[in-house]
Design brief:
This protein is α/β, with parallel strands linked by helices and 221 residues long. The protein is built from 8 helices and 8 strands, in the order E-H-E-H-E-H-E-H-E-E-H-E-H-E-H-H. Helix 1 crosses helix 2. Bound molecules: D-xylitol-5-phosphate (DX5) and zinc ion.
């Protein structure tokens, strides 16, 4: 089964950004996760188009852009041009999902939707056929380094079931509080792609940590 580790550059050392991203690339990261926050949808501000360009320049990996912003459609063209491979919008911030997912695909990107912890999985039912990715938030979005919300595990299992029943091969990503303690349960429940910020950048050897996290995604006796 596929396992993708997607380090979040939100936890990187911004004084050495290019080096940090190149380090992830060389260290076996599958995707580079870029968290865009607008200070409105979430209570924090992060970065925008320049960071996507930096990730594109410093890495050959998939640039996975997580838009925690209101009116995300305002940014699609610029972010696609900057080199985003995946554009993920929050269902809570995007009332016109059909139009917006279609537009993302027209721009040549993979289209994802993210769900806050309190948002029911059923919101993806009607658009499952349009989705390249579902991102389940396992913390309340806005900050790195938060505690994993335990009830996310059951939600992953129900999302996996829904995607399978819809015949969808969308990526099932989990974002927030992923660590040595939580990754295996998320993988066993059916997630295949794991965003990790603090766990990787807080490790003494971030590259080794990517391998450790990947290695935990196996059946344990
Ligand atoms: C949270 C972001 C996450 C965050 C993950 O709002 O979407 O991607 O960077 O960080 P950790 O792994 O530290 O919870
Ligand atoms: Zn994220």
């Amino acid at each position: 089964m596929t396992v993708r580790i997607a380090p979040s550059v939100l936890s990187a050392d911004f004084t050495r950004l290019g080096e940090e991203i190149a380090m992830l690339d060389a260290g076996g990261a599958d995707w580079i996760h870029v968290d865009v926050m607008d200070g409105r949808f979430v209570p924090n501000l992060s970065f925008g188009v320049k960071m996507i360009e930096a990730a594109r320049r410093s890495s050959r990996r998939v640039v996975d852009v997580h838009l925690m912003v209101l009116e995300p459609e305002r940014y699609f063209d610029d972010y696609a041009k900057a080199g985003a491979d995946v554009l993920t919008i929050h269902v809570e911030a995007a009332p016109h999902l059909d139009r917006q997912l279609t537009r993302i695909k027209e721009l040549g990107c993979k289209a994802g939707i993210a769900l806050n912890p309190a948002t029911p999985v059923s919101v993806i039912e009607e658009v499952a056929h349009l989705l390249d990715l579902v991102c389940l938030m396992s913390v309340n979005p806005g900050y790195g380094g938060q505690k994993f919300i335990e009830y996310s595990v059951d939600k992953i299992a129900r999302t996996r079931l829904l995607l399978d029943q819809a015949g969808s091969d969308a990526v099932l990503e989990v974002d927030g509080g992923i660590s040595r303690d939580t990754i295996h349960r998320c993988w066993a429940a059916g997630a295949d792609t794991f965003v990790a910020g603090n766990a990787i950048f807080g490790a003494t050897d971030p590259q080794a940590e990517i391998a450790v996290l990947r290695g935990l995604c196996v059946e344990q006796a």
